[in-house]
Amino acid sequence: MKPKKAYLDELTTKSKDYKVKVRVLEKRRPKTSPEKGTKMRGALFADQVGIFEDAIKRNRVYEITNAPISPLKPEWKTHPNDLDYQMTFGRRTIVLPADNNDGGDDPNDQDYCPISQLPRIPDYAEMFDVLGVVLFVEDHPRVVRTGNDRETKVREIILTDHSTPQPLSISVWDELADDDCSMLIPVPGKFRTVGLTALRVSNYRGFSMSTSMSTMIIHSPVGAKAEALESWMTSHQMALTELQSRVFNVKMPIPAQKNAKIAALRSKKAKTTLQDEKHWLEVTIPAAELHKVNAYMGCSHCSKRSSIPPGSAYTCENCSEADCTTEPKITFNCDISDGTGTLPMTAFSSTTEKLFKMSATDIFHMKHADDDQAFSAVQEMLRLKPFKVQVGPSTSLSMSNILQWVVKQVVIDGANDNASGSVTATQADPSQSQVVNSSKGSQVQTRNSSTPPPKSIVTDASITSAITGIIEPAIATTPVNELSEVTTADSVQPQTHNKLLKKEKAATVAASAPLP
After folding, report:
1. pTM of the prediction?
2. Contact status, residue 130 vs residue 199, Cβ threshold 8 Å
3. CA dihedral of 472, 476, 482, 485, whole degrees rounded to 10
4. What is the spatial distance between Cα 284 and Cα 127, in angstroms, rounded to a whole number?
5. Where are any strands of DSSP class E within 313-459?
């Protein structure tokens, strides 16, 4: 029977004698595991890795005929739009190139994109090859838990190139975070170039990049662009050394540094400031105003405004959490000052409670009763009593090279007894952070009876919930001896079928036999 033309989202386990035209969106790099014999979706086993290495290229179009279709378990999906089925290559499966495009995965012929030309808005479908000079590599991988509740490894590397003064942070996931990254750890003052393929743009810390399942690390890049970067690196050793020193100072700060001054921060330039810089200030609030206190009833989990009566449990439409309740929520806008200048700050509920030394309920009643007498006492206390804040650049620095300072943490002496010793973080702008670095995401304080009570770093629960995820869920794998993986999507001319708008879903192609 002649194979019938089909589309990926039309295939089920009952599909027989079909032909589908696809583009290979991703092709997992080969990896070695200590165990073998366990089958996983989209895998090429043992000798097939070598057979398919040159036969199937990323971003090439192929016609696949009569590949058996099997169900795909939800936990193996790498993206919400993945289909519920996967392909496996059987003896009757035929894979033929469907175009004459010579592009592919050749590491000697990469279309490297300058850092300054990378788009700042994430698009899951787009991937880029990047060439850069290595400035920093984390000493060891961090073990993190993904959104699918699986543990994986991640490691940060920082690159720069000739096109921008802002270095690029790359989150390297899975097995690439081991030896491939360790080989890149720089010696201060000595530099090397490296190429990374198939990177995705991420909004982690505003703008960064993340490896994909197709990413390869090219330790000795070649070609005209690599030679040009090597030449630039050789002639800019002093500038690279200075930039690397600043990166190291930010990534491995010296404790007990002196407080910074607002005037000094105001004088800093974007080109000499790094996205991860943090500075401590000792400040007061010289002119607190009641009309800048916003008090409303909101979700106990995400702080979204709610019209549900207090005391009633409900599922929040905004955060989808069950058993939420409505409770008073506070935001407080003010200017903080250290005598050399001012910075704007927005404090959320928990921070405002500590600053005002009042509960959110009492602040709510004070606001809606226009109780100027009660607020005048708060106003005088804020004017006279200093506290500490940690500030850093907003994400506009990595996004568009614009330097704006925002408050990241607030530290208040003499906090209420029920908060004594708590150590969490508050952030003036929830959009400034999407990920908590597991190596720095918590702080621990210990003391004995002879030491004074610790300072309390206070946090607003409404923003803590916004900084719990990991940017790029790792590709889940079941250990096998040698395996590789490819992901495909329909590839047909836009005008040829009226169902194309729903054909962008991805399916996984697995191989169990060599190409005919």
Report:
1. 0.64
2. yes
3. -70
4. 47
5. 326-337, 342-347, 387-393, 405-412, 456-458
Indicate the SS3 state at residue 267.
Answer: coil
DSSP string for 217-229: EESS--SHHHHHH
What mean pLDDT is predicted for residues 135-139?
95
Round to whole Å and give the CA distance between 130 and 262.
36
Say if residue 374's pLDDT is above 60: yes
CA geometry: angle 309, 314, 318, nearest 5 deg? 100
Cβ–Cβ < 8 Å for 356, 342: no
Chain position carrying tokens 């090429």: 44
Say which CATH superfamily domain 4-99+475-511 falls into: Nucleic acid-binding proteins (2.40.50.140)
- For CATH 2.40.50.140, the residue range(s) in the chain are 4-99+475-511, 115-251
d(CA 80, CA 318): 19
Question: How far apart (Å, rounded) are the C-alpha atoms in residues 74 and 63?
Answer: 26
Distances in Å between the Cα of 157 and the Cα atoms of 217, 339, 386, 435 are 12, 38, 38, 16
CA separation, residue 415 to residues 135, 283, 513 (Å) = 41, 16, 67
Say how many residues make up the chain. Answer: 516
Give the confidence band of 57 by pLDDT, cuts at 50, 70, 90: low
- d(CA 13, CA 132) in angstroms, rounded, equals 45
**Side chain identity at residue 134, one-letter code:** V
pLDDT tens-digit readout, 453-485: 333 333 333 322 222 232 233 333 333 334 445
Amino acid letter, residue 235: S
Given CATH 3.30.750.24, say whether it is the number of domain 115-251. Answer: no
- In percent, the amount of the chain with pLDDT more than 90 equals 47
Query: Which whole-number Å values give the CA distances from 332 to 349, 367, 405, 484, in the listed order?
Result: 8, 11, 18, 53
Which two structure tokens, joined as six digits, stand for 209? 């990049």
- Mean pLDDT is lowest, of 15-24, 128-137, 159-168, 280-289, for 15-24
| Burial class for 465, CB neighbours closer than 10 Å (0-12, 13-18, 19+) | middle
Residues 87-118 have pLDDT tens digits of 666 666 666 777 655 444 455 557 899 999 99
Q: What is the pLDDT of residue 349?
A: 92
Residues 300-320, mean pLDDT to the nearest whole number: 91
- Write the single-letter amino acid at 107: P
- Residue 282, burial from CB neighbour count under 10 angstroms (0-12, 13-18, 19+): middle
Report H helices in 171-215: 179-182
* CA nearest to 329, candidates 361, 283, 292, 357: 361
Q: Find the DSSP H helices in 43-172.
A: 48-53
Instruction: Return the ∠ at Cα 296 (arms to 295 and 302), rounded to 5°.
Output: 115
